[in-house]
Every structure is written in C-alpha cells, then in structure tokens.
Design goal:
The protein has 144 residues and is an alpha+beta fold. The protein contains two helices and eight strands; from the N terminus they run αββββββββα.
Length: 144
C-alpha cells in the first residue's frame, strides 16, 4: 500500500510538471487563423488565411501568412507574438506567388515608400507613408 501511495505521488508530481509544458507548446504551435482583413478568428471555417511564427530575430517575431491552400500571402516581422504590432520589412503576395507590394512598418503603421505591382509584374505607382506625421495630424485633429 505504501509503495502504491508513493507511486501515485510521483505520478501526480510528473503530471503537474507536464501540464504547463503542454499548455505552452499548444499555444505556440499550430497556425493562427485570420479573416480577409488579417484579424484573428477562432476557426479555420471563418478563415481566409493562416499565420505561422517562423522564428525570432533581434527580438522581433518572423511571421508568414498563407492562403488556406498553403501559398504564401505575406512575410513580415512583429514586435509581439500576438501579431498586433507590425515592425520591419513586409512583403505581400498574390495567390499566384507574385509580389503584390513590399515596404516597411514602423510600430504598427506603414512607413516610407511602398512598392506595388500588378499580378503580371508591372509596377504600379509607389505609395509613400509618413506614419509619425500622420499620427501627429490625427491627434491634433482629434483634440479640436
């Protein structure tokens, strides 16, 4: 009986040690499903895309977003694992795999010159974003 109690105690200790490991790995593993506006949704049925964390470099989280068929839609980096603050270089793709646009995000906002392309590879007019200047303008307007 004593050996059985010790065995149960040991089993309970092992179980308590393993639960946090499984909880952490289940949160970090697997795709995050996104709708057409790249917002998190709960299930694949609601999704247009799925996102995967592919690494961490210089404190930033490298992410790839895929169409549901597996083709890459976007590659970029975020400051947070929840993918709320885009920061760094981003490239967006058409479902054909050709580049749609590329440029920089700075603390969640498009910044600088973004190159844009038609699906056949023809260049479209560039767009220029000045995140800091736009935010100052918006804040000033909001305080009026």
């Amino acid at each position: 009986m004593c050996a059985m109690k010790q065995s149960l105690k040991l089993w309970n200790i092992l179980l308590m040690l393993c639960i946090p490991i499984f909880a952490i790995s289940s949160d970090d593993e697997g795709p995050k499903y996104l709708n057409e506006r790249m917002e998190l949704v709960k299930s694949k049925k609601q999704a247009t895309y799925y996102a995967e964390m592919v690494g961490k470099v210089d404190g930033k989280y490298q992410v790839k977003v895929h169409f549901l068929d597996g083709t890459v839609k976007m590659e970029g980096t975020y400051q947070d694992p929840e993918m709320k603050v885009a920061h760094g270089e981003f490239t967006y793709y058409y479902s054909s795999g050709k580049v749609e646009s590329n440029g920089l995000f700075h603390e969640g906002y498009k910044y600088g010159i973004w190159q844009r392309f038609l699906e056949d590879g023809t260049e479209r007019p560039e767009k220029v974003y000045a995140a800091g200047a736009m935010l100052k303008y918006m804040n000033a307007e909001a305080q009026r």
